[in-house]
Design brief:
- This protein is an alpha/beta fold and 307 residues long.
- Strands 1-2-3-4-5-6-7-8 form an 8-stranded parallel barrel, surrounded by 7 helices.
- The chain has 13 helices and 8 strands.
- The protein is globular.
- The structure holds dihydroflavine-adenine dinucleotide.
- The site of dihydroflavine-adenine dinucleotide has 23 residues, from strand 4, strand 5 and strand 7.
Length: 307
Amino acid sequence: MDLTLAYRSLVLQVAEHPWVKGLILRRGRGLYRRYVAGETLEEALKAAEALEKEGVHAILDLLGEMVRSEEEARAFQEEILKLVRALAQKPWPRYVSLKLTQLGLDLSEELALELMRGILREAEAAGVFVRMDMEDSPRVEATLRIYEALRKEGFAGLGLVLQSYLYRTEKDLDWILPYRPNVRLVKGAYKEPKEVAFQDKRLIDAEFLHLMKRMLREGVYVAIATHDPRLIGEAKRYTEAMGIPKDRFEFQLLFGVRPEEQRRLAREGYTVRAYVPYGRFWYPYLSRRIAERPENLWLVVRSLLGG
Ligand code: FDA
């Protein structure tokens, strides 16, 4: 396993420790501000508006995952519907991301499907695009089944995510290709064992480029979601060389990460979206961001020291 991935694995493990979690929840407020737009919908809409002014579109994401009761899942659905209704009033591109475990996937696939259906009915009427994030490997198959079911029911404004670190992803792409999918391609953010995922950054990057190029060649609309300058550069070069127009793909980055690059890509005429998370349940999201970059450990230390 390479060092960056070993670091990620360690951070994600330590982050689950109740003592660490308690400490970060008490003292890590300054830290979460770097990656999260705020705890309320109003704060998220304000952040989205500021991005719009810079030519970057927002993907609104109500934080929450792994709910433990149907009541909680239904409460999240209600909050997401509030978001959809608020976006319906906005003049900018309307875009939402969500997680199926937020809608009760771990309780029952039928429940998550039913709650997704309710969201998509309103979202389609309001012109809001909805993307299902991809979570850890035990949930991939169910996520793809739900995607397939909803596309078969005729919901068109629905996208999903593929992760280049999983060995299975190319076969998953074959599975969903008949539905003319809108795919966000990412490297993958979870701690995955070597039985299911590449453990070497070079292989994950190579697979990312392979999948990206295949999708672009086959006419899949691709949201290229990475901050990696090498991969972004290669995406630009490849699309130019192949004559793939800029309306066949876009770049997506996370709120708070490389904001100057987000603006630069937008100025160059690319569609750019920033993933804007908000809400009270920011801890797992923040842990994954810290785990992505060893330098971020200093942010944790500084924030705990009150800096
Ligand atoms: P990599 O980790 O190699 O980083 C490249 C460079 O980017 C770093 O050297 C650094 O400069 C910068 N960088 C990266 N992460 C940073 C951070 N946290 N803070 C500061 N700088 C950072 N994953 C998943 O499993 N399911 C999903 O649904 C999604 N959804 C998603 C949406 C969007 C819009 C993005 C951008 C990413 C995701 N991800 C995701 C996360 C993704 O899998 C991956 O973990 C991160 O994007 C980090 O990987 P990079 O591709 O940026 O490369």
